[in-house]
Task: structure prediction
Amino acid sequence: MAKVISEGIGAFSQCFPRLTVIVTAQAKGRDNAMAVAWHTPISFNPPLYGISISPKRFTYQLIVDGKEFGVNFLPFDRAELVASVGGSKGQQIDKFRKFNIATDKSVKTAVPILKDAYAAYECRLVDDRGYGDHRLLVGEIVAVHLVTEAFAPEEVLDLDKVSPILYLGQELYLTTSKDTVRSLDREVYGQR
Ligand SMILES: Cc1cc2nc3c(=O)[nH]c(=O)nc-3n(C[C@H](O)[C@H](O)[C@H](O)COP(=O)(O)O)c2cc1C
Result:
């Protein structure tokens, strides 16, 4: 296949597909949720997690006010909810009421944790830095909510139990297929 070289970031600017989450926030008596595809683990010790969001998002204002955020990992059968919270503005509607989003009690923060999440982090904001048109918000993970049956030994997601939500760009979502999983031992492959 032929390659084109360009200086602009172009079509592959967002490196999709990406595991996509719902970020939650709470402040001033308001709960909110938004879809986030740009997110990453940053450190094991202390446990830090980063999300890159536009300062135009209502969620951003709530995180700055509340100094906390939640990161919710949902199964593929809840992909519609990602599109719903990613396609609506918390400044205009109460997304929890409109989309009938059930929550669990958070334990270390006041952020909503989604009942349907197979994993969720409660994070305390430790850094908020601008990079271009987005803000990189770094949170310390202070509580982890896990559906333990969703994980095989060694903390690997059990794909027989949970299908994660991947976002391909535009309005396209997909999930993983267990048939494509390959076990490649790095110790073996690193020495070959
Ligand atoms: C699949 C998907 C992924 C998204 N990822 C991001 C993201 O990583 N960062 C961001 O700032 N906005 C992202 N968005 C856009 C926000 O979710 C969207 O603007 C939302 O309406 C913001 O809601 P709020 O104004 O209530 O905070 C994404 C939207 C979708 C549909």
User: Anything to note?
Assistant: The first strand starts at residue 18 and ends at 19. Residues 20, 32, 34-38, 52-54, 57-59, 82-83, 86, 88-90, 167 surround flavin mononucleotide (CB under 6 Å).
